[in-house]
Amino acid sequence: MRGPSPDTVGVVTVARSVLLFLLAALAEIGGAWLVWQGWREHRGLWWIAAGVVALGGYGFVATFQPEANFGRVLAAYGGVFVAGSLAWGVVVDRFRPTVWDIVGAAICLVGVAVIMYAPHK
Questions:
Q1: Rounded to whole angstroms, how far apart are CA atoms 82 and 77?
Q2: Which of 28, 36, 93, 112 could cross-link to 79 by cystine, CB 3.0-4.6 Å?
Q3: Which residues does UniProt assign to the signal peptide (predicted)?
Q4: Residue 92 near residue 33, CB atoms below 8 Å
C-alpha cells in the first residue's frame, strides 16, 4: 500500500496550519476581548481571568504549527490577527468595516500566504 502523495501531504500541512492560525486568532482575540469586557465594560474579574486563560492558550497553539521558525510563524500570524480582529468586530461587536479595512485585511492575508506557504529553499 502506498502512502499519501507529496501533493496531499502539502495540502494537509497547509490545512493544518490554517486551522491552527484560526484557533490562535480565536484564543488571542477572544482572550483580549474578554479582558476588555472585564475591565473596560466593568464585567468583573471572572471575565478578565477567562481572558488571561485564553491568551495563555494562544501561546501554546502557535507551538503546533508545522513551520519550525518562531519568527516566521509569529510574523505570519500578525496578518491573521489583523483580519481576525476585523472579523471578530463584525460578528461580535457589530462593527461595520470600510472598504479600506477589507482591502487592508486582504493585503495582510496575502502576506500570510507568502510568508508561510511560498517556497523558502
A1: 9
A2: 112
A3: none
A4: yes
